[in-house]
């Protein structure tokens, strides 16, 4: 079932759970996310960074869309960290149901202007839009980029941003970083900032850089009001750790001999995250008449 992000997260917000957005860069990772979502009866988000879209190429998404449209669980196909209008238009042409425009490094007024432009393009097409306010740190182990120091989202800016852009979801900076944290770096989420933002805006909120954060902090953030958590590094790391073990111990070269155990290792992480986000067995919530009508609009 393919729906857009607004439709997906409205249900999550109503029922106080979050949905994992898992970055997919090839068919192995697509299998990991889709098969584990179906096994756990969990909604899921197929997230694709522009560099991942460039790597996989447009035609790959004919397969992706066919696979998720025919699934019994709800999926969103989402462009992660679109940097400009060209990124957004490419994703929409390919068939993405949701896009993110990342103007977080711009001054507030310019971020609002850019995001509003993307909203005006996307909404008439039934495509939802995610914006970002504040900047997410970068540990140096992720393609998403960012900055070395988190610039926290100001609640009053969040209110102005949402009202001025009409954006559907908002990524907020409360202390996470993209990538795997070094051993000497301990992430700490600012729940006070998240609570203050929730008092100012009423749309679903997004946590970027969700890998490697303490479970108790992620769980608390979901209870306060995070409806989408981005996961990339954690499950890719598990996949390639197993891959390295196999290649170091054998002379295998056939993908069908190497990758099955790697896929299983990544699935364990995805399952763990779905349980942490409380999204397991929530797919049934998307089978009422209203949601099925949304689905039909996107088919």
From TrEMBL:
Its cofactor is Zn(2+). It comes from the Bacteria. InterPro entries: Aldolase_TIM, Class_II_FBP_aldolase, FBA_II. Pfam families: F_bP_aldolase (PF01116). This is Ketose-bisphosphate aldolase. It comes from Metabacillus halosaccharovorans. The lineage of its organism: Bacteria, Bacillati, Bacillota, Bacilli, Bacillales.
């Amino acid at each position: 079932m393919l729906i857009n992000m607004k439709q997906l997260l409205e249900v999550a917000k109503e029922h106080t759970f979050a949905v994992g957005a898992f970055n997919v860069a090839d068919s192995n990772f697509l299998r990991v996310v889709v098969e584990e979502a179906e096994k756990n009866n969990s909604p899921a988000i197929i997230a694709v960074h522009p560099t991942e879209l460039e790597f996989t190429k447009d035609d790959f998404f004919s397969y992706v869309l066919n696979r998720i449209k025919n699934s019994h669980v709800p999926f969103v196909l989402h462009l992660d960290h679109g940097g400009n209008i060209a990124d957004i238009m490419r994703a929409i042409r390919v068939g993405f149901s949701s896009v993110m425009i990342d103007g977080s490094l711009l001054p507030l007024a310019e971020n609002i202007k850019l995001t509003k432009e993307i909203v005006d393009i996307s909404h008439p097409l039934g495509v939802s839009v995610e914006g970002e306010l504040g900047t997410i740190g970068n540990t140096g182990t992720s393609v998403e980029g960012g900055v070395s120091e988190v610039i926290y989202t100001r609640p009053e800016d969040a209110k102005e941003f949402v009202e001025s852009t009409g954006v559907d979801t908002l990524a907020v900076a409360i202390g996470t970083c993209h990538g795997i944290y070094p051993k000497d770096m301990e992430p700490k989420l600012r729940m006070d900032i998240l609570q203050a933002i929730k008092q100012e805006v009423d749309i679903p909120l997004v946590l970027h850089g969700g890998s490697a954060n303490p479970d108790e902090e992620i769980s608390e953030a979901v209870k306060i009001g995070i409806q989408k958590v981005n996961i990339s590094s954690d499950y890719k790391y598990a996949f390639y750790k197993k891959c390295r073990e196999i290649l170091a111990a054998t002379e295998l070269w056939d993908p069908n001999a190497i990758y099955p155990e790697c896929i299983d290792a990544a699935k364990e992480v995805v399952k763990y995250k779905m349980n942490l986000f409380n999204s397991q067995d929530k797919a049934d919530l998307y089978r009422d008449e209203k949601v099925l009508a949304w689905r039909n609009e996107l088919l």
